[in-house]
Amino acid sequence: MRSFVWVVRAFVWMFVFTGLLQGEELSIYAIQYTDDPNGTSPQNGNIVGCRGGIVIHKWLGGRPRLTLYDPNYPTGWGGIMVKDLYSVGAFTDVNVGDWVTLTNVQVEDFRGTTFLQYEGENDPNLQIVSRDNVMPEPLVVQVSEIAAPIEEIDKWVVADHSAEKYEAMLIKVVDVNVVDLGYGKAYDNYILRSNRDPNLECWASDYMNEDREAIYHPYVQIGQRFCGVTGILEQYTAETDGIYYDYYQLLTTTTTDFLVEQYGDLNYDCGVDFFDFALFAGQWLTGQQCGMPDWCGGADLTKNGSVDWLDLWDFSEEWLQGGI
Fold first, then answer.
1. Rounded CA separation 255/198 (Å)
2. Which tens digit of pLDDT belongs to each residue from 62-109?
3. What count of Cα atoms within 13 Å lies in the side-chain half-sphere of residue 95?
4. How many CB atoms lie within 10 A of CB 105?
5. How many whole angstroms separate alpha carbon 212 and alpha carbon 220?
6. Which listed CATH number (2.60.20, 3.40.50, 2.40.50, 3.40.30) goes with 139-259?
7. What's the CATH number for 2-130?
8. Which residue ranges does the chain devote to CATH 2.40.50.140?
9. Crossing angle of helices 274-283/309-320, nearest 10°?
10. Which pTM value belongs to this model?
11. C-alpha angle 165/196/302, rounded to 5°?
């Protein structure tokens, strides 16, 4: 009888061990969430299965990568990047908007960012569960939540890693301007400063932006104001030429990530509120003929020559969206 029990136990342990080798199925949250002060995933080094998420970006430069988002975790720890380590073409049939799951992928914290490495030797697999999923709206965060690193002797480092929960997530900062270029390990970062609190700054980069020219997107120039900049947050750590780097960068992906003007924002404060409504009401049905260059102070949103019901409709639509 005792021999039979040990045989059963052996089969149970073999089943469990085999399951671990094949990769435990985890949510993105379970892989990303950490209380490690350096932001290292508790699954670092493990081969796992991932329930996956919606592909919000596909990048084919260098080693191809996907950025996945799980809408069950909209406020943090809901994004992760998948890297095709040996460029085996695993992502060829994958499109933005697909929900994908993965098995037998290795969790690796590489230069600060947690990746799911798609390595052939682990016999990985990617499955497209559904297509044409609704793309998430970016999570609006304060500039202070992804603050720029602080310059010290031979290093650029963040004060803490509180931004870790936004890693690989689609986020947005509002009402910022470009104050300087040429920062970071590859000198491709630029500084975005808050117009609402000039003491707050964060770093951004366009290296994954499909519309960029040379290093930066054409919109990125010193002095340029943006009502919003959207991107995927990435941590970068490395030591190069005797300088240690540890910073977060907001990676833009297309031209649409830059909101230069807010529709219906008549006082140019990057918001649509009662101040704008007062300006709009001042132009309402005055009989004034609107035209270039200012179209009745911008109140003629439809540019049909007068401020009327059509403009009020457009204005109310923007108002109900809550601006940025």
1. 25
2. 789 999 999 999 999 999 999 997 766 789 999 999 999 999 999 999
3. 7
4. 25
5. 9
6. 2.40.50
7. 2.40.50.140
8. 2-130
9. 180
10. 0.84
11. 100
